[in-house]
C-alpha cells in the first residue's frame, strides 16, 4: 500500500469524482481508500465530501482529490452488485458524464459490495460486457473487506497520468518535464488535472 504523503508533497494533482446512485457505497469507498476506514452506519451524503490521498505513478507522486457528490456530479462510476437498478442507472450516469467532458475522460466502472455474495443481483460477466461496450475500465470492490479499493483508484489515477503524458507528447513537450503551473484539461472545465504550481499549495 502506498505511503501517505504530506499535503504539499506531490508532482500532479488530479480530481476524481465518484458518481452513481445513492447507497451504492461511494462514501465508504472514499474513506477506505483515503483513510483505510469503513463505517457500517454511514448515512447518505448531503452536499459534497472530498478527501485526498497520494500515490506513486512511475517516478512521480500523484495526489488525488476525490469527491463524493451525493450522486449529483461527475471518473469513478459506481453501482451496488446487490441492486440491479443501480447497475441499470449507470448508463444514464455515463451519458451525463460524457455530455460534460471531452473524449479523454478516464472512467472506472466499479461494482461495489462484492462481499455480499449471497445477495448478488448483477453478474460479473454482465458488468464486464457493459464495461467493454462503454469502453471503461472495470473492477468489483468491497469497501467492507477492502477488496480492490486500492487497485481501482490506483488504476484510474495511473490512466489519468498517462492521458496527461500523451497530451504533453502531442504538444511536443517532454512528459517527464511538463511545464510547472500549466493546467491540462482531461475532462470538463470543472474537472481539471493540473501540474503542481511551484511555491504554491493547492487546497
Task: Tell me what you see in this structure.
By secondary structure, this protein is an alpha/beta fold. Helices cover 29% and strands 24% of the residues. A hairpin with a 6-residue loop joins strand 7 and strand 8. It is globular.
Q: Could you outline the blueprint of secondary structure elements for this entry?
A:
Layout: E1 12-20, H1 26-35, E2 49-57, E3 60-68, E4 76-80, H2 84-88, H3 90-99, E5 108-112, H4 124-134, E6 137-140, H5 149-170, E7 183-185, E8 192-195
Parallel strand pairs: 1-3, 1-4, 4-5, 5-6
Antiparallel strand pairs: 1-8, 2-3, 7-8
Subcellular location: Endomembrane system
Protein name: Ras-related protein RABA1f
GO cellular component, one term: endomembrane system
Low-confidence stretches: 1-5, 70-74, 175-203
Structural class: alpha/beta
Overall, the morphology is globular
- Computed over alpha carbons, the radius of gyration is 17 Å
Instruction: Tell me, rounded to a whole number, the average pLDDT.
Output: 79
- Approximate strand percentage: 15-25%
Q: Could you name the CATH homologous superfamily?
A: P-loop containing nucleotide triphosphate hydrolases
**Biggest sheet overview:** 8 strands, mixed
Order of helices and strands: EHEEEHHEHEHEE
Number of distinct beta strands: 8
Termini distance? Answer: 24 Å
- The helicity comes to 25-40%
CATH class: Alpha Beta
Secondary structure tally, helices: 5
Q: What number of structural domains do the residues give? A: 1
Known CATH architecture: 3-Layer(aba) Sandwich
Looking at the structure, the CATH topology is Rossmann fold
Main location: membrane
Organism: Eutrema salsugineum (Saltwater cress)
Protein name: Ras-related protein RABA1f
GO molecular function: GTP binding; GTPase activity
Amino acid at each position: 500500500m502506498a505511503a501517505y504523503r504530506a499535503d504539499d508533497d506531490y508532482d500532479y494533482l488530479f480530481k476524481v469524482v465518484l458518481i452513481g446512485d445513492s447507497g451504492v457505497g461511494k462514501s465508504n469507498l472514499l474513506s477506505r481508500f483515503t483513510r483505510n476506514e469503513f463505517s457500517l452506519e454511514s448515512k447518505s451524503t448531503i452536499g459534497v465530501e472530498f478527501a485526498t490521498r497520494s500515490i506513486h505513478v512511475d517516478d512521480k507522486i500523484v495526489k488525488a482529490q476525490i469527491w463524493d457528490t451525493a450522486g449529483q456530479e461527475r471518473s469513478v462510476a459506481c453501482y451496488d452488485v446487490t441492486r440491479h437498478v443501480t447497475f441499470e442507472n449507470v448508463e444514464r450516469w455515463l451519458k451525463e458524464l460524457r455530455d460534460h467532458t471531452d473524449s479523454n475522460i478516464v472512467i472506472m466502472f466499479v461494482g461495489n459490495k462484492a462481499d455480499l455474495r449471497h445477495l448478488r443481483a448483477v453478474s460479473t460477466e454482465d458488468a464486464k460486457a457493459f464495461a467493454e461496450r462503454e469502453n471503461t475500465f472495470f473492477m468489483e470492490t468491497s469497501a467492507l473487506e477492502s477488496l480492490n479499493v486500492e487497485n481501482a483508484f490506483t488504476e484510474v489515477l495511473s490512466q489519468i497520468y498517462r492521458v496527461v503524458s500523451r497530451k504533453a507528447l502531442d504538444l511536443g513537450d517532454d512528459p517527464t518535464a511538463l511545464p510547472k503551473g500549466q493546467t491540462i484539461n482531461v475532462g470538463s472545465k470543472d474537472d481539471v488535472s493540473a501540474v503542481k504550481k511551484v511555491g504554491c499549495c493547492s487546497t
